[in-house]
Amino acid sequence: MNSPDVQTLLQQGRLDEAERLARQSLQSQPGDIDSLNALGLIALRRGQLPRAQQLLESAIESNPNHALSRHYLGRVHDAAGNVDGALAAHGAAIKLAPGMFIIRLHYAIALERAGQQDQAALQYFRASNDAQAQGRWTSAETTAPGLRPMVEHAVRMVRQTRKATFANLLEPLRQKFGADSLDRVERALRIYFREEAPVYPDPRQQPTFFYVPDVPPAAYLDRALFPWIERLEAQTFAIRQELLQLLPSTAGRERVFTTEAIEKENLRGLQSPPSWNGYYFYRHGERRADNCAACPVTASTLDILPLSHVRDHGPEVLFSVFTAGTHLLPHRGVTNTRLVGHLPLLVPPDCALKVGGEVHEWREGRAVIFDDTYEHEAWNRSERTRVVLIFDIWNPHLTEAERAALEMIVPAMGDFRKASEAA
């Protein structure tokens, strides 16, 4: 039977044996980084902080680029109440090993102790996301017992910080529209933070990201809700003429799915490889000026639509091109706050849309509006190209105050995520 190594002895709390083994290793290999780190940790556990600091500083001198040595030194400074020393050590460690989420967790704690609450929240969020991406910290079972209090604190701290941010953003709207004007949005935020369970009146509706309760559900929306729909349809011929001028070329078109892996996961082909690409007028909310200029009738027609403008998120507006035989597999959208519209422009036989189990066959010039948080799919089983104009619009059941709130809080969610990724 093999003898346990130093790390195993440390994990078992057998400090005397671990120390003896580490000292033996250090005698045979002077300056050995693992032995110095182990002896530093043993001294830390015994409360011998000056000794621990000395050993870990020796380890860093031996190898300045060893992240764990700097992290352990940070923990010594934590124990000594040396906030500046802890910040410096943990900060240096995370620069050397940005993927080590336990180091990032301790760095966040040091930032919080230093009074840098916003930066701490970003680091807590990044640490949690990195851990969960590796299947850790998703539950009590996937979190080491010694880390659970820190991880639970991280979750609470991030939630409190983000809730305070959203409350500050929404306060001017409450003042403008009334105290109860944002009740549904506030409930949506409680659902988002998992403080309230969502209740779906139609169980077929399952948003993947953000759900506003008490918004009437429907797989397909009644045309009477959209007073502009006939004006849109009246432009079908002119819009199609602009499309036909583009179609001989693929210039300006982009893959809808940004990677080949995502495309393979979501598309199938009957005979030849499937293809779904788009000529975008808006993508992730960014207006494509050149494409709009090339299709002036289409661009001006879009101005009559209540497009769901949300910075960095929407709308998505495009000539959606399915090549022959392409099948978009069942999937769901992110939120019931916006709907998806299709204006069919070129529709050969055997092409259809299926939302919530209900099949809709496109008719050229006849718009259809649906809620994509219902499971939906689309196919082109013909031997020709199918093109529809896709556009994202606000759900008409939302109020002006609610739309204004969403225009602020959804970008704020994205800003926080991006800041954490850059932290």
Automatic annotation (TrEMBL):
- The lineage's top-level taxon is Bacteria
Query: Which keywords does this Swiss-Prot/TrEMBL entry list?
Result: Dioxygenase, Oxidoreductase, TPR repeat
Q: Name one GO cellular component term.
A: membrane
Pfam hit, one: Asp_Arg_Hydrox
Q: Which PROSITE patterns match?
A: TPR
Task: Give yes or no: UniProt keyword Oxidoreductase.
Answer: yes
* Residue ranges occupied by any Aspartyl/asparaginy/proline hydroxylase domain in the UniProt entry: 235-396
What molecular functions are annotated in GO for this chain? dioxygenase activity
TPR repeat placement: 33-66
Instruction: Give the family from UniProt.
Output: Belongs to the aspartyl/asparaginyl beta-hydroxylase family.
Q: What is this protein called?
A: Aspartyl/asparaginy/proline hydroxylase domain-containing protein
